[in-house]
Write a structure and sequence with these properties.
single chain; Chromosomal Replication Initiator Protein Dnaa, Chain: A
């Protein structure tokens, strides 16, 4: 009996990151700032926003962080990918792995469209939305 595909959730991204990057269970959610953990955590946060369309406050609560920390990680990832677009290959490879864990396949067209939106969106507009939500 084959497994039916299901929707990818934030928890799936976290578990996939810990497996893919060979981290210990729970490392992504810990407060550690070690480089080998921060990179994968940042990728999870970036995909939570750009792929799962989750809000900064929701992602922050789920990852035991303030929404402004989530916003900062997202913005840093966007800056990194704008400066070095070859990093998108790593994002694509990880996302493909994460989706496979829930029985889905990655559509190249959807990936391209979502990354274009994420990397071309105006970061300032997102800051205003977050600040307006917390006011």
């Amino acid at each position: 009996m084959s497994k039916l595909p299901r929707r990818l959730h934030l928890r799936d991204l976290i578990i996939a990151a810990e497996n893919y990057f060979e981290l210990k269970r729970g490392d992504i959610l810990k407060q550690d700032r070690h480089k080998h953990i921060v990179g994968p955590r940042r990728m999870v946060i970036f995909l939570a926003r750009s792929w799962l369309d989750l809000s900064y406050p929701y992602t922050g609560r789920a990852m035991n962080r303030d929404h402004t920390t989530i916003l900062h990680h997202y913005q840093e990832m966007v800056r990194e990918l704008r400066a070095n677009p070859s990093g998108l290959a790593k994002v694509r490879q990880f996302l493909r792995f994460a989706l496979k864990q829930v029985g889905q396949e990655l559509s190249n067209e959807e990936f391209r469209a979502r990354m274009e939106i994420a990397l071309n969106s105006r970061v300032q507009r997102e800051v205003e939305v977050v600040e307006g939500a917390s006011a």
